[in-house]
Specification:
This protein is mainly α and 70 residues long. The protein has helices at residues 3-20, 25-31, 36-43, 51-61. α1 packs across α3 (36-43) and α2 (25-31) crosses α3 (36-43). The longest helix has 18 residues, at 3-20. The N and C termini lie close together (11 Å).
């Protein structure tokens, strides 16, 4: 999997989880102590989420970190 595809895959999954949990980007960012802009960039595939960010997202949404890579 190329880096561009990985960014897009992770972004789609973050957005899906956020919407399924009825959260705005602002609320999600607040919950995991990040900026809304950072969440937006991840969801749009502009930034690759760090391991630390994925850890916090997985913990918050109660999913295995592997979820973001499947």
């Amino acid at each position: 999997m190329g880096i561009r595809k990985l960014k897009n895959t992770i972004g789609r999954k973050v957005k899906y989880l956020r919407i399924e949990n009825n959260l705005t980007q602002e609320k999600l960012a607040e919950k995991i102590n990040m900026s809304r802009e950072h969440i937006s960039c991840i969801e749009r595939g502009k930034n690759l989420a760090s391991t630390e960010t994925l850890y916090y997202l997985a913990k918050f949404f109660n999913v295995d970190i592997k979820y973001f890579f499947d």
